[in-house]
Design goal:
The protein is an alpha/beta fold and 335 residues long. The chain contains ten helices and 15 strands. The strands form three sheets. Strands 2-3-7-4-6-5-9-10-11 form a nine-stranded mixed β-sheet, with helices on both faces. The chain has a four-stranded parallel β-sheet with strand order 12-15-13-14. It has a two-stranded parallel ribbon with strand order 1-8. The chain is globular. Bound molecules: threonylcarbamoyladenylate and magnesium ion. The site of threonylcarbamoyladenylate has 28 residues, from strand 5 and strand 6.
C-alpha cells in the first residue's frame, strides 16, 4: 500500500526528494492524477512504463513549471508560444519538435515532445520546488480508467508506489487537450479536452484542424501513437444507450444505466421505459457539461466496484467538453 500524503510543506519536500532520488509517485493535476517521475532520468521513466504496463511506443507527457522551464526541452514557434501564454497553466498539452535534453524513451523515439504546464496548485508546488520537468501519464494501469482521486490511484497502483500526494478530486476530470504544433503553420487537435477548438482558434487568429479529419490516416497513428481506439476502459462491459429499448440483458443481469443528466421523473422512467429493472445514475443534475466531465471517471470507478454485469451510458451533447467525454466513452465502450 502507498502512503497517501496530505499536501503539507513537509510532504511536498518529501515528494521532491523522492523524485530527485528517481522514484515514481502519484501526483494530482487538475485533469487526472499523474504517475510522475523526473523526465530527465531514463531509469525513473522506464519504471513508469513498467508500473503502468504501458507499451514503450506510447510517449509520455512532460509537465513543466511554465514556458520558461520548457525552453530547453523543445523548439518553440510563435503559435505555440501564444497558446502557452494563453492557456498555461492549464489543461493544454503542446506537441513540439524536441531538443536533445529530452530522453528518447520519454517520447517513444519520436522527434517531438508533448509539454504541459498544469494548473493544480499542489502539482505546481512540486514542479516549482523540484525545478524538474516531470514525465507523467495518467496514474492507472495501461488502457484502464483514469484516476481522479488519490484513492483511485491507490486502488489501481498502490501496491507499486511508495507515495501518492492527495490534491483532492480533480476539477476538470478528463485528460488535457493535445495540440500538435510541430509545424508552425498548422495547429491540429490530437485529443479533445477542456480547452476547445474555438478557444485555440480565437487565441491563434486562425483555424485549427480537428482530429476527425486526420484520425484514420496511418500518419496520425505515428503523430499521437497513444491515441488508441481501445482505452480508458472500466472492467464492466460498457454500452451506449441510444434508445431505452436497446438494453439487452440476461434475466439475472444486474445493470446500471447512466444518463447524461438527471431523468425526470425517475420513477416513471423506471416503470415504463426500461424493459428490465435497472439502477439509474446520471453524470450531472442539470446537464452541465463541466460537471459531467468532472464526475465521469469517478462514477465509472464506483460502478466498477459495484460489480454490475453491464453499464449502459448515454453520450453527452457533442460540443464543448462533451466532445472529450464522448471521445473517452467511445474508446471505453465494449462495442
Ligand atoms: O491531462 C493529461 O494530459 C494527463 C495528466 C496526468 O497530465 N496525462 C495524460 O497522459 O493523459 P497519458 O499518458 O495518459 O496520455 C499521453 C498521450 C499519449 O498517449 C500520446 O497520445 C500523446 O499524449 N503524446 C505524448 N507525447 C507525444 C508526442 N511526442 N507526440 C505526440 N503525442 C504525444
Ligand atoms: Mg492515460
Amino acid at each position: 500500500m502507498a502512503d497517501i500524503l496530505q499536501p503539507t510543506a513537509d510532504n511536498i519536500r518529501l515528494v521532491v526528494d523522492s523524485l530527485r532520488a528517481g522514484e515514481v509517485l502519484g501526483l494530482p493535476t487538475e485533469t487526472v492524477y499523474g504517475l510522475a517521475a523526473n523526465a530527465l532520468d531514463v531509469s525513473a521513466c522506464s519504471s513508469i512504463f513498467e508500473i503502468k504496463g504501458r507499451p514503450l511506443i506510447d510517449p509520455l507527457i512532460v509537465h513543466v513549471d511554465g514556458l520558461a522551464a520548457a525552453g530547453s526541452l523543445a523548439v518553440w514557434n510563435d503559435q505555440a508560444r501564444v497558446l502557452a501564454e494563453h492557456f498555461w497553466p492549464g489543461p493544454l498539452t503542446i506537441v513540439l519538435p524536441k531538443l536533445p535534453l529530452v530522453p528518447d524513451l520519454v517520447t517513444a523515439g519520436l522527434p517531438s515532445v508533448a509539454l504541459r504546464s498544469p494548473a493544480h496548485p499542489v502539482m505546481r508546488a512540486v514542479l516549482e520546488e523540484s525545478g524538474l520537468p516531470l514525465a507523467a501519464p495518467s496514474a492507472n494501469r495501461f488502457a484502464a480508467l483514469s484516476p481522479t482521486t488519490a484513492q483511485h490511484v491507490e486502488e489501481g497502483l498502490g501496491n507499486r508506489l511508495e507515495y501518492i500526494l492527495d490534491g483532492g478530486p480533480c476539477s476538470v476530470g478528463v485528460e488535457s487537450t493535445i495540440v500538435d504544433l510541430r509545424c508552425s503553420g498548422q495547429a491540429r487537435i490530437l485529443r479533445p479536452g477542456a480547452i476547445e477548438a474555438y478557444e485555440l482558434e480565437q487565441a491563434l487568429g486562425r483555424p485549427v484542424l480537428y482530429g476527425a479529419a486526420i484520425k484514420s490516416s496511418s500518419e496520425e497513428r505515428q503523430v499521437a501513437p497513444g491515441n488508441l481506439d481501445k482505452h480508458y476502459c472500466p472492467r464492466t462491459p460498457l454500452y451506449f444507450l441510444q434508445n431505452h429499448c436497446d438494453i439487452a440483458q440476461p434475466d439475472d443481469g444486474n445493470i446500471a444505466v447512466v444518463y447524461f443528466k438527471r431523468p425526470l421523473p425517475a420513477l416513471n422512467l423506471r416503470q415504463h421505459q426500461h424493459p428490465r429493472p435497472a439502477h439509474i445514475y446520471w453524470l450531472s443534475e442539470d446537464g452541465d457539461l463541466a460537471t459531467a466531465a468532472r464526475c465521469l471517471y469517478a462514477l465509472l470507478h464506483r460502478l466498477d466496484a459495484l460489480n454490475y454485469t453491464a453499464i449502459w451510458i448515454e453520450l453527452a451533447p457533442d460540443w464543448g467538453i462533451g466532445k472529450a467525454i464522448n471521445d473517452r466513452l467511445k474508446r471505453a465502450a465494449t462495442c
